[in-house]
Automatic annotation (TrEMBL):
<dbReference type="InterPro" id="IPR014188">
    <property type="entry name" value="Acrylyl-CoA_reductase_AcuI"/>
</dbReference>
<dbReference type="InterPro" id="IPR020843">
    <property type="entry name" value="ER"/>
</dbReference>
<dbReference type="InterPro" id="IPR036291">
    <property type="entry name" value="NAD(P)-bd_dom_sf"/>
</dbReference>
<dbReference type="InterPro" id="IPR013149">
    <property type="entry name" value="ADH-like_C"/>
</dbReference>
<feature type="domain" description="Enoyl reductase (ER)">
    <location>
        <begin position="15"/>
        <end position="325"/>
    </location>
</feature>
<dbReference type="InterPro" id="IPR011032">
    <property type="entry name" value="GroES-like_sf"/>
</dbReference>
<dbReference type="Pfam" id="PF08240">
    <property type="entry name" value="ADH_N"/>
</dbReference>
<dbReference type="Pfam" id="PF00107">
    <property type="entry name" value="ADH_zinc_N"/>
</dbReference>
<dbReference type="InterPro" id="IPR051397">
    <property type="entry name" value="Zn-ADH-like_protein"/>
</dbReference>
<protein>
    <submittedName>
        <fullName>Oxidoreductase</fullName>
    </submittedName>
</protein>
<dbReference type="InterPro" id="IPR013154">
    <property type="entry name" value="ADH-like_N"/>
</dbReference>
């Protein structure tokens, strides 16, 4: 059987190892669609998997990578045929199912979304799970009734992947975006994306009061922990925060006060097992509501061989915007 290049994660005496190697096609897992992977991306979860800093990988050996875009090579699924351009994000890839940092992937056809018209495979991976999660968050806020007329919206971790896309999309939709970041040097970058204000994350890092001064109608939070608790305490009556990340931790040291005294809602966002119809809707909105010029400006390209090194960088907070990985 043929072999192909892949980033393989193996269990080691101390933690895990991740390295570029040759992978045997015979070892690919079950699936009814085989895809020639052309582009992938680097998300925070990928960094955790590559470094072993969290137990993201749950079978070994594992091909890392939770997102890919490419061309169908072979299919027994009725919806897909050879030559179709497809996108796949989540579904346990890089965790329980062999993932995207490889020249070939075999997955279930039910996991795939057609590459939206007007987006290249590279564009799709410049968006990736981070941008897809950002759009799911925006859609959740809209469903709750938040609009630009509702008042300002806050985005935490704004210089990261989720935050950058959320800031760009929300500003294009007409929202007054307050971007929170721990990197003061990124203020000009965030304003260029459309942020109306940039605040220091330290404003949201002290222990949260049950209720604080109302500052925003809604928000997108990729940080969690005390930051999320502060966002909730500062949300206006009837507002909502979409929670989609845990960069600062999984805890939530809050109180019920925002919920029972201001009618605030906490909207949970999951991109991994998200059903297929919301996936399609989010990708179509990304194709129309994300400024492609800004997407290009926030994107940095790396080759497959550099993925392990960049995995450590994203965990260290040393990555701005989005990273695309050129597979072939």
């Amino acid at each position: 059987m043929a072999t192909f290049k892949a980033i393989r994660v193996d269990k080691a005496d101390k933690g895990t190892t991740a390295q570029l190697t040759q992978f045997d096609e015979a070892e690919l897992m079950d699936g009814d669609v085989t895809v020639r992977v052309e582009w992938s991306t680097l998300n925070y979860k990928d960094g955790l998997a590559l470094t072993g800093k969290a137990p993201v990988v749950r079978r070994f050996p594992m091909i890392a990578g939770i997102d890919f875009a490419g061309t169908v090579e072979a299919s027994s699924h009725p919806q897909w045929k050879a030559g179709d351009k497809v996108v796949c994000t989540g579904w346990g890839m890089g965790e329980t199912h062999l993932g995207a940092y490889a020249e070939k992937a075999r997955v279930k056809g039910d996991w795939l979304v057609a590459l939206p018209q007007g987006l290249s495979a590279r564009d799709a991976m410049a968006i990736g799970t981070a941008g897809f999660t950002a759009m799911l968050s925006v859609l959740a806020l809209e469903k709750h009734g938040i609009s630009p007329k509702s008042g300002p919206v806050v985005v935490t971790g704004a210089a990261g992947g989720v935050g950058s896309v959320a800031t760009a999309v929300l500003s294009k939709l007409g929202y007054h975006v307050i971007a929170s970041t721990g990197r003061a040097s990124e203020a000009d970058y965030l304003k260029h994306l459309g942020a109306a204000e940039v605040i220091d994350r330290n404003e949201l890092s002290a222990p949260a009061k049950p209720l604080a001064k109302e500052r925003w109608a809604g928000g997108v939070d990729s940080v969690g922990s005390t930051t999320l608790a502060n966002l909730l305490s500062m949300t206006k009556y009837g507002g909502a925060i979409a929670a989609c990340g845990l960069a600062a931790g999984m805890d939530l040291p809050s109180s019920v006060a925002p919920f029972i005294l201001r009618g605030v809602c906490l909207l949970g966002i999951d991109s991994v097992m998200c059903p297929i119809e919301p996936r399609k809707a989010a990708w179509q909105r990304l194709a129309s509501d994300l400024d492609r010029t800004k997407l290009a400006e926030i994107t940095h390209e790396i080759p497959l061989a550099e993925v392990p090194d960049w995995g450590a960088k994203i965990l260290a907070g040393a990555v701005r915007g989005r990273i695309v990985v050129k597979i072939v």
